[in-house]
Write a structure and sequence with these properties.
about 0% strand
Length: about 140
């Protein structure tokens, strides 16, 4: 259990630092960190082995929280979305895929880079769905 709390804390800190470097409004730092930590927590709780599904669930969480917080704090949704998906980005998989490509291991590279694309697509879809639902609701 301590490891999972440490990972949540690390996700929070990473998102806050990322938000500082991208000059997010100061009053959004803690809430943006919370979005990222909760998105990571959802992905972590759902377990490994289904990276695309867990990334989608984490991004769905980030997107929904971003919509709520953007309205409450009267800030653009992108402030929270860009911070919230940071822990979900498949950077290690992309790195390993590119490393395999450079080392001439084409089958491994293809597998890892395809997995990276699927996870990135799941993150994009998970973030887009709450925004699309909010916009559709406004039109009615």
């Amino acid at each position: 259990m301590n490891g999972s709390l440490l990972q949540l804390a690390a996700a929070f800190v990473a998102v806050v630092f990322f938000s500082v470097t991208t000059q997010a409004p100061r009053r959004t730092l803690a809430s943006g960190g919370l979005v990222g930590a909760l998105a990571w927590g959802v992905q972590f709780l759902l377990g490994s082995g289904h990276e695309v599904a867990t990334a989608f669930a984490g991004a769905l969480t980030a997107g929904a929280l971003a919509e709520v917080l953007a309205r409450r704090q009267r800030e653009p949704v992108t402030v929270y979305i860009s911070a919230g998906i940071l822990p979900l980005v498949p950077g290690v998989t992309a790195y390993r895929g590119m490393l395999a490509l450079v080392q001439g291991d084409a089958p491994t590279a293809l597998t890892l880079l395809t997995q990276t694309l699927f996870v990135a697509g799941a993150v994009a879809a998970g973030v887009a769905l709450p925004t699309a639902l909010v916009r559709a609701r406004r039109r009615t």
